[in-house]
Amino acid sequence: MDILLIIILIIIVIVVIALILYVISLYNSLVTMRNRVNNAWAQVDVQLKRRNDLIPNIVETVKGYAAHEKSTLQEVTDARTRIANAGSVEEVAEADNQLTGALKTLFAVAEAYPDLKANTNFINLQEELSETEDKIAYARQFYNDTVLKYNNTCQTFPGNVAAGLFHFDTSTFFKTNEEEKAVPKVQF
User: Is residue 80 exposed (0-12), middle (13-18) or buried (19+ Cβ within 10 Å)?
Assistant: First the structure.
């Protein structure tokens, strides 16, 4: 009987140790994923900052050609300020959508000024902003992919047990507003 009891105790100890190691591994995985989400958000933030740094140069270039377009220039400046002051992912997404709309209006204004369209400085700034917009789109996609993986781990078994036990909350996706999703009207 003593040998059977010792074998049972050894099996119980092995199972407990295996469970402890699994929980530690799951916890470390959740921490790693949360850090990846934070890093992905930081990359979005870096690209948004880069765009915000370009905007004053574009506005100043346009000002020289289109002095009477003050409302458009003010809208771009205000949107830039809102994105700089946004705190949460939702606030940044909303401010980013407003800034994107304001920039579209600004470039539509630029179309009305052939000298501005031909200005080398403006063309370079426009190309740099276009590259930055591509990087922002990629950073958003990477952020959302990272959030998806993290949220899936936090919401599926057994990750949801560990996430609840150690207070890991799901993250928010970076979403565009409805007008950004609308199909543009093309008129000839």
Answer: buried
Q: Which of 174, 110, 117 is nearest to 143 (CA)?
A: 174
In a domain, 185, yes or no: no
| Residue 98: closest CA among 108, 83, 109, 110 | 83
CATH of the domain at 58: 1.20.1440.20
DSSP 156: S
* 133, part of any domain: yes
Phi-psi region of 164 (alpha: psi -120 to 50; beta: other; left: phi over 0): alpha
Nearest to 76 by CA among 90, 61, 58, 64: 58
**pLDDT (tens digit per residue) in 104-137:** 888 887 777 777 777 788 888 888 988 999 999 9
Q: Give the span between the Cα atoms of 110 and 47, in whole angstroms.
A: 24
Rounded distance, CA 97 to CA 99, Å? 5
| Residue of 178, 172, 179, 181 lying closest to 86 (CA atoms) | 172
* Residue 86: domain span: 2-169
- Residue 184 lies inside a defined structural domain of this protein: no
pTM for the whole thing? 0.77
